[in-house]
């Protein structure tokens, strides 16, 4: 099989490429240049798209003896991921840029170009399992629960899954690192990426301040009383506790959390942790990882964060909306996050949270 491997420069995609070479596939590596301003490239391994990462990927490709290319997708990344991220925060929502990157860059732009160039499939170092049965390609959680990345892949379609490969699906991270070391790959001990790749210093609030400017407003409690001020509602997310700088302490002395964000009035509402409890989620723009949309009511699991716990729920979906009723209340669920639904370990689909109560 002719396989294009998206090589980030990390240990996971490097071992994925090595395994495919070992299995006898015709492998080509590609690194994605996503940043339009090289001066913002950082040193170290805070993200996954730095100049340093590109050099690491090239060295791995040389070691494996495979062709290697760098594709400049910076303009599309800026429009589809970065601009979307900024717009979502401006609208008072909390997006997941890694999920958006998978949806619009790695498994849309890269896959489309790869197929046009004659490749049979695109492979990545994601931890997730694919299984093809009766013409349907199903996406499942990985064997290593601590590294499972099925959540950020939940937006993929059948057409994309059918042309995808995840060679690490059955591995645990420690074994992947050991395998890289045995192969002589210098990235064997490289730290995992953990930050938003286009925010070089890891300061999300600072990045949003630079992009959206300052817009002073009020922080109010649930009764509408002003308890503090802010420089812009885009500096906050539902469930946030730190950095509120409230001038008026709560009457009961307990910590307060962000309960809601109103872009129209430029106010942020805070209150006690108990007020964050959510039992019902409304999500829009559903996509389906399974061949047949799971419409109507059914029992399943829902996950609202990349490393969040799956929650038992009754799920009811139609063509435009997914309504989720949780068995137990959850806390800190923000509009803009993705709700990914599961049937056991099987990924069913994803939708964007519009409201929670």
UniProtKB/TrEMBL annotation:
Swiss-Prot/TrEMBL catalytic activity: S-sulfanyl-L-cysteinyl-[protein] + uridine(34) in tRNA + AH2 + ATP = 2-thiouridine(34) in tRNA + L-cysteinyl-[protein] + A + AMP + diphosphate + H(+)
E.C. code: 2.8.1.13
Keywords, comma-separated and alphabetical: ATP-binding, Cytoplasm, Disulfide bond, Nucleotide-binding, RNA-binding, Transferase, tRNA processing, tRNA-binding
Gene designation: mnmA
UniProt-annotated catalytic positions: 101, 197
Residues the entry annotates as binding ATP: 6-13, 32, 125
Subcellular location: Cytoplasm
Organism: Propioniciclava soli
Pfam families, A to Z: tRNA_Me_trans, tRNA_Me_trans_C, tRNA_Me_trans_M
Name recorded for this polypeptide: tRNA-specific 2-thiouridylase MnmA
A GO MF label: tRNA-uridine 2-sulfurtransferase activity
